[in-house]
Amino acid sequence: DIPYLPSQISFSCEFPIKEITNIRAHIPVHFRQQGNAVTLFTNSIPLGGAFYAEGFRLVLS
After folding, report:
1. Which domain of life is it from (predicted)?
2. Which distant-in-sequence residues (6+ apart) come within 8 Å of 8 by Cβ?
3. For residues 61 and 58, what is the distance between their CA atoms, to the nearest angstrom?
């Protein structure tokens, strides 16, 4: 069994985000937005692994 840890990448956006598409990542990525703070996150990183997400597109509300 390999333990999995949550990891995240945060940035700010002053507009409400409807969805984030075209994420090129090696694991499932989700997002949440609270005010201007946006977080891309995953719960699927193996211990000692790396989280990268690139090339995503924001769809604003």
Report:
1. Bacteria
2. 39, 40, 41, 42, 51
3. 10
- Burial (Cβ within 10 Å: 0-12, 13-18, ≥19) of residue 10: exposed
Q: Which domain holds residue 35?
A: 4-60
Buried b (16+ CB within 10 A) or exposed e, 34-43: eeeebebbbe
- Please state the pTM of the whole predicted model: 0.64
Residue 58 has pLDDT above 90, yes or no: no
Q: How many domains does the chain contain in total?
A: 1
